[in-house]
Amino acid sequence: MGQGVLSPAFSRRDGELTCRGVSLEGLAERFGTPLYVYDAQGIAERIQAFHHAFRGVEFLLAYSVKANGNLAILNRIGATGAGADIVSEGELERALRAGIPASRIVFAGVGKTAAEMARALEAGIHAFHVESEEELDLLEEVARARGVQAPVGIRVNPDVESPTPHHYTATGHAASKFGIPVSRAMELYRSGADRPHLRFVGIDVHIGSQIVEVEPYLAALETVLVMVDELRDAGVPLEYLDLGGGFGVGYRGEAGLPLDRLAAVVTKRLRERGLRLILEPGRSIVGEAGVLLTRVLYRKESGGKRFVITDAGMTELLRPSHYGGWHRIVPVIQNADAGAPEVAVDVVGPVCESGDFLALDRPLPLPERGDLLAVGTAGAYGFSMASNYNARRRPAEVLVENSRPLLIRRREEVDDLIRGEVIPPLPTVAAALHSGDPTP
Ligand code: LLP
What integer pLDDT is reported at residue 1 of this predicted model? Predict the structure, then answer.
């Protein structure tokens, strides 16, 4: 097998792209397209890389479920001893059903409801990461009503600028909706002495997503460490520091965030204080382990542009259209005329929106109708952001494990599309007249 094409797991054999030796063309024929294919070994190796980098400190990897919440993926991640970072009751149920113990789950998000808090308390999660004062008050009320103590970490807004590729994924600056400013957070921690139904156990910060530089993390770290030290002196000792997720990956094949450089500082600073570390990586665990397979339906030229129309688009992979996200696209079978000149094409989907594309002005060897393309680094925020817009059925997902392809989610059927919808009986003429509706 040759060198990795999209990541080490996806390499060519006789010109054909495989996942650990499993033919991607074969998977597309068997399971149909569009199709997500994930590499189990790659996911496990990324988790090991985190454990290795942060081996010098007591460490919980709380995988960020939003990146890819398939039950099988969560199950395999949980089996390594990892926990989960969740933002909704739905993600809580996913994590629990996949076998991740509640004691390893942290719950972030700016809009938790009382019902979600009650369910998470009942399950016995590790901690709530509270993002506003009003949320803290409600959590206290919910815990009091149940006669329990809620474990809490405040999500602090450290006011750092984080260099993310799109402003939608920056969260660490003061004007973002996330977290609580430092001085207010300090007051809330200090109020803990009078709040028997809250137990302040940790502190949390998450500065954004797809960050490849270490410095913004270190700036945020220093901010929260000053808080931790002041709180300890004020008699509010914290047990853990959660530095969030956001560790960038190489969409163009480059290296992602250098974990070892981050770990060297973080490990030292936390050990000095006897603090446990939690990290919430999502993309950096599953991103490079996934591809989206899509077939070329048609080609056409118009207005001086060349379009390649594929059976996947914004409904399967929203990132290009929503964030200008760039994903590599390669042919699964290299044409006999490999080395054919590349032409700039717009790779567009079937959805009725001009914003529906996988790539714009992308140099590619012009594919034929029916050719299979692989879209790289699609394991994170791919399926999890897929939608049913245009009444499209969400794709199937396959996990390649020990060189065996396992169907971990079947393609949706029409019944899935309309589940829960109700057609009420047409109003009778009499009822319509009674209600004064002139158009029975
Ligand atoms: N922790 C918290 C509190 C988060 O909000 C997020 C991501 C993570 C952890 C995980 O971040 P990661 O390690 O995956 O970068 N849909 C966007 C990314 C949105 C990230 C939202 N929060 C994208 O496709 O780029």
Answer: 43
